[in-house]
Structures are given as C-alpha cells and as structure tokens.
Amino acid sequence: MRRAHPVLPLAPGSTIGILGGGQLGRMLALAAARLGFDVAILEPEPDSPAARVSAHAVLAPYDDPAGLQVLARLASVVTYEFENVPAAAVARLADMGVEVAPGPRALEVAQDRFEEKSFLNRHGAATVAFARADSGEEAVEAIALVGAPALMKTRREGYDGKGQRWIEHAADAARAFEELGGRPVILEAAADFRRELSIIAARGRDGATAVYPLSENHHEGGILRRSLAPAEVAGHIAEEAERIAARVLAGLEYVGVIGIELFEMEDGRLLVNEIAPRVHNTGHWTLDGCEVDQFEQHIRAVAGWPLGPTHATARVEMINLLGEEAEGWLRFAHEPETRLHLYGKREPKPGRKMGHVNLVKPLGR
Amino acid sequence: MRRAHPVLPLAPGSTIGILGGGQLGRMLALAAARLGFDVAILEPEPDSPAARVSAHAVLAPYDDPAGLQVLARLASVVTYEFENVPAAAVARLADMGVEVAPGPRALEVAQDRFEEKSFLNRHGAATVAFARADSGEEAVEAIALVGAPALMKTRREGYDGKGQRWIEHAADAARAFEELGGRPVILEAAADFRRELSIIAARGRDGATAVYPLSENHHEGGILRRSLAPAEVAGHIAEEAERIAARVLAGLEYVGVIGIELFEMEDGRLLVNEIAPRVHNTGHWTLDGCEVDQFEQHIRAVAGWPLGPTHATARVEMINLLGEEAEGWLRFAHEPETRLHLYGKREPKPGRKMGHVNLVKPLGR
Predict the structure, then answer these.
(1) Is there a single domain that holds both residue B76 and residue B146?
(2) pTM of the predicted model, to two decimals?
(3) Residues A210-236: pLDDT tens digits?
(4) Partner residue facing B346 (CB), from A13, A30, A292
(5) Which domain holds residue B144?
(6) Closest residue of chain A to B47, computed from CA coordinates
C-alpha cells in the first residue's frame, strides 16, 4: 500500500497521527483540533490522556505492524511525542508511504547520547567533554579522559534523571557500569554552569525557522520543577542560542518543534546539554505567553504550514504539578494570574507530571 | 437511578456532558480537556465536530431516553451548546439526578421570544415594543400596537435570520403569519439602532458574576459577519450593559456563560435584542483576547469552579468563515496577526459557519 507523500501543506480535515498518548500528545491533539485537523493516537496503554481528546485511538505497541498499518491508513502524516520511538516503527510507516516528522535522522541522533553529542560538536555546538564506554574497563578509561566527577548515562533511553549516576572516583566506574545494566554508556564531564536555559525552536518543511525566547529552567531530583520565560539573558547569549538552534535544525534537516537544553557556564559560554526532537516541557509557558504556542507550531510544521509568530506576549513562570501537587487545582483556579493545565492522568504517582500552571504577568514588570 | 447532585466544585477527571456536537460543543470540549475533564457529547449526527475531540460520544436524538440514560451515567453535570434543547431532555436528566446548567429557567425563557422579552422588561432591561400573535388576525392587530414596519418571528426556534420576515404594511401580516407556518409569532417594532453590541457574561454557582468587555457586531443576511472587541463605547454604555447582564443573570438564577445581544440606539439607550443561554459567536474573540476565554469560563461555571479574569489582553477583530471562505485557510495561516480556528466540519455549505479568524492587535492601537 505504498502511496505518494502527501501533497503539502496538509488541508484541514486531514488526520495527523501521533505516536504516544501522554500529555504532550494530548496538547498536540488539542492544537491540531483548533486548526481543524483530526488526530489518531497510537499508544499501547488504554484510556490515555491524548486518546481521550482524539478522533481515533489505535491501541497497540509502538512497533506493532497491524497497529502501524491502521495508523498509516488513517493519517496523512505521523509525528511523535517522545524520542524513543522504535526506529523500526518509523521505517515501517515510511514503507507504507507515510511520512514521519521529525524524520529518522532526528531520532537516530536523539536516541543515542553519544551520537547526539558527536553530532552537536560536528555542527559547531559545544558540549561538555564526553567519552563512550562499552565495558567497565572502558568506563574507567573514559573517566581518565573526561575527569572526575563525571556523569555516567546509558547511551539509550532514560529520562527525568533515570538511567544515570554520578561517578566521584574512577575506581567506581566499573561497578556503576554494571549497575546501569552493563549497557553502552556515555561519560560526561561535570558542567560548571551558572544556570540551565533552553531554547524552543521550529523548522518548517520549507526550511524556514523560528525560535521562541529563552527559558530559564530549574530542576529538582532530575525533574523539571519550573521555567521562567522570557529568561533574562545578555544579548550575546540569546544570539548564541539562536545560532545553535539554527545549526541543529539545519544539521538534522528537521521538521517540527525541537527543545534544546543549554548550560550557561560561569565563563559565559553556552553548552548544549541535550536535544529533544519534540515539543518540550520547558516550552509549556508558550501556551499562555505567545500567540502561537509550541504545540500549534509543531502541528503547523509537520503539516507543512507556515510557522507562526514566536514573540512573547507575557512573562510566564511555568510550574510543573508533580504527583499529588495537582490536587491543589482548586487553589490554583482561584488565582487570577494562574492558568491551569491538567493532563487527565488517572493516578498521581510521586514525581509524575500531572499538569502544570502558568503564572502570567505583563511583559516588562 | 436517582442520585445526589454532585458535590461541587467538580474535580478534574470527572466527565462533563454536552448536548450538541457542533463548533460550540467542540470549543467547550477543548477547554474542558485543558482543565483535565473528560467530555461526553450527546448528538444525533455521527462524526460531529465535538465528538471527534471528546472521550465519549452518545449518538442519539436529544430527547432519546436511552441516550440520555447513557449520558447521565457518564456525566457529573450536563450543559448544552444551543438553546433549543428539548425541555423533556432536561427534565429526564434531572429525574436521573444529573444537574443541567444553565438550568431549566434559562431554557424556558430563551426558547420563546415572547417569554424572553417579557422576562427582560420585568427585570428592568428595555427591549423594542413587541406583541404576540397566535393567528393572522391577531398579527394584524399586533402591527397596530408595535407599528410598521415590524419584524415577525416565530416564537420558538429559528436562528441566523431563519423563521422571520419584515412586515411593511399591516395588510401583509396575515399572509406572513401563514408563510411562517401558522405558528405563534411575536411582532417586534423596528429598532432605530446606531449599532449592534453584545456582552458576554458569566455567573458561577456561588452567584459571583463576571463580564467581558463589549463587542461590536456586524451581521450580513442575518448571520454574524464580524465582531470587534473591546468595542469603543462610552463609559455609561458599558456600565448600562453590565447592569443589564447582572439583572438577567440574577433573574435566571443562571450558571454558565450567556450572550446578550444589544442595540445601541441613536438616542443613546441600550435595548436588549436577544439572549442566548450559552457560549456565543460574538464571544469567540476571547479565545485570543483574554486570559480565560468564554469556553473555559463556561466550563468553570458549570463545574462550580471560581470564574476567571475577563479583561482584554489584546484588541481583536473576529471574522466568521462562512461556507467556502474557510478554504482560504492557507492564506490566513500566512498572516502573523491572524489566529485561525477551524471547526472540523466536512461540508462547506453556503452560510455555514466553518471556522473563524481572530485578527489580534495590541491594546491601545
């Protein structure tokens, strides 16, 4: 059932497929609906947040051939809410003539932390020193290269601080390697950063790009706690972040919204921490601080539409609601400057992202 | 299966029922999803715009007992997107212990144009002169009361200019009465108005009220063409509109968002044209001109949440996209100040509301 790639831009009334039924898929689906699109969600869990606001729900593992075939029949283009989409799924969709955006190159790079940092350095985006290791012995050698303390991460998978640990002494590296499952890892030098920033950027099918103002991000226990945007940054920092975004987007021949996490170093340099080939938690402020938020922007890009404006219309503090914090919804609803976004998740497990609030203030205050 | 009324405010994760699956239901459903609610749509047409963004779709006539029972089982509270909900449906839902908001009083008044104007006058809101007629003979007499030309409308049903006609001479009244189906009518005096305004207002379960800035509205062929908001009005006009809204909301013991159409007369008075006990086309500007739009406001009200802020954050020109006008979507997508809202309707029939655009400009320009 090979068919021609859709003639773009995609007309309203078409169906956009999304791999993943979590909160990012949900907010993408809501944005797509506003533009007149239907949405089909492929997700192995029943009753997912995104499926409950979408026209079609395909209940199947991400790499299930039958499920992917149903999705291919429904959707004119497919995107995803998380970067660990199986490469086989994307290949199978391509075989069936369905384009996936962002494309396979973005997934290859983002799914492997060693490939990612190598790609970044090749494209003129600085990172901390890093080295790969496929054994405990290599891990010890890698520490000698990058110095201690160093952060050991599995090359693949892991999020919100999972699948990683700090190595204080080279002697501990071999044991840590085994504790992380004996899988290929990357060792990263500690970053002496002043603060964490991120830039949300987008690239359309025509190669046009757009960047949102920078966000300043605060993590706790490896999980994003809050973001402030637009971040107060020196002009040259903003320009450097935009240069990095432009290089990454072009290097990946990217289509869609990308999140690029940055370290602002004590010495004033900007290093890339990681890239996420999708809408990003640190871009949730755009829902109430921009005319076109990151979700609509992503839908516009993957549908081949022109990108929308990205300037800030307000100053926003975004605070994630983790676990039982979302039970404070009534208190937030009483605050006139607070915009509440809840994801429809049934179980408030500790650390689970249940929603977020955007505290909105006028620009220039 | 009688059960206690929900303990309010309604918690996220609950299901809100909506009678009607059109664009208003769709935009209500999107707003409800943002706050973490599930939505169940009851609508006789398959593949409706609202059902495609909702967790549950009940395909049944509005007064179908089985369909209403399914809705009652799913939903903690039920609202509606149009005022011609059968009274029997609301009564049946009440029998099953499910609250409907806005309540039966609002529907009774809004479903009958004679009751509506009588209610308004009783509550200190002026209207044009009007008279009822149940026969051609009475229609002729009514013209004598209100003067010619007069507007004859069926007392019940009709929208966007349907079910009404102008009577130039009393002698034509009897024939017009027959042409409108021989049903009870109301005769309204011509309003010598300078312009049409509307006010979107809300009342919470706690009796708190909130009003949005006035909108200036332009109709063509009985269909809303465009709205400008906030309208430029004299201070006393805005205050009078707010007084009218407060009286109407209190008089109906209203819960939810209401649209009140006003005539600004050449002599400076403000007359009420009609009230719509629901979110309203002239409030679509709030989607891009307010922090909490009319759809979220309505969901907040019917869920027993506190009302949100209603001040304008931008100046908006809302233009309805009728019929094939929506096919200009790509042109609109290219305009940076234009926010596009499409309803997912399959067939662009002439005059059919397919979407709208909000042209957004900074306040004070």
Answers:
(1) no
(2) 0.96
(3) 999 999 999 998 899 999 999 999 999
(4) A13
(5) 129-189
(6) A55
- Per-residue pLDDT reduced to its tens digit, B8-46: 899 999 999 999 999 999 999 999 999 999 999 999 999
A309 and B336 within 8 Å at the Cβ level: the answer is: yes
Residue B133 sits in a domain of what CATH number?
A: 3.30.1490.20
Q: Which of B26, B29, B34 sits opposite A341 (nearest CB)?
A: B34
> Is B62 within the bounds of a domain?
yes
Judgement on whether residues B160 and B203 belong to the same structural domain of the protein:
no
For residue A286, the domain's CATH number is 3.30.470.20
**Is the domain of B41 the same as that of B89?**
yes
User: How far does Cα B307 stand from its chain's mean position?
Assistant: 18
Whether the Cβ atoms of residue B298 and residue B79 lie closer than 8 Å to each other: yes
Do B10 and B304 touch, CB atoms closer than 8 A?
yes
One domain, residues B217 and B267? yes
Instruction: Give the Cα separation of A210 and A245 in Å (integer).
Output: 9
- Contact between B36 and A355 using a beta-carbon 8 Å cutoff: yes
Taking CA atoms, B309 is separated from A156, A356, B200, in Å, by: 45, 19, 13
Contact (CB, 8 A) for A146 and A131: yes
Q: What is the CATH number of the domain that holds B35?
A: 3.40.50.20
For residues A113 and A284, give the distance between their C-alpha atoms in angstroms, rounded to a whole number.
Answer: 24
Same domain, A243 and A338: yes
Burial class from Cβ neighbours inside 10 Å (0-12, 13-18, 19+) for residue A235 reads exposed
Q: Which tens digit of pLDDT belongs to each residue from A130-174?
A: 999 999 999 999 999 999 999 999 999 876 667 889 999 998 999
Nearest to A106 by CA among A96, A120, A92, A125: A120
For chain B, the domain total comes to 3
Q: Which residue, among B52, B305, B337, would best test binding to A if mutated, counting the most A CBs under 10 Å from its CB?
A: B52
A245 lies in the same domain as A140 = no
Q: What are the residues of chain B with a beta carbon less than 8 Å away from any beta carbon of chain A?
A: 9, 11-13, 26, 29-30, 33-38, 52-55, 288, 291-292, 300, 305-306, 308-309, 313-314, 326, 329-330, 333-334, 336-337, 339-344, 346, 355, 360
Does residue B199 sit in the same domain as residue B341? yes
Residue A355 and residue A224 share a domain = yes
Q: Does B141 fall in a domain?
A: yes
pLDDT tier, A365 (very low <50, low <70, confident <90, very high otherwise): low
Quick check: A333 and B305 CB within 8 A?
A: yes
Question: For residue A162, what pLDDT is reported?
Answer: 76
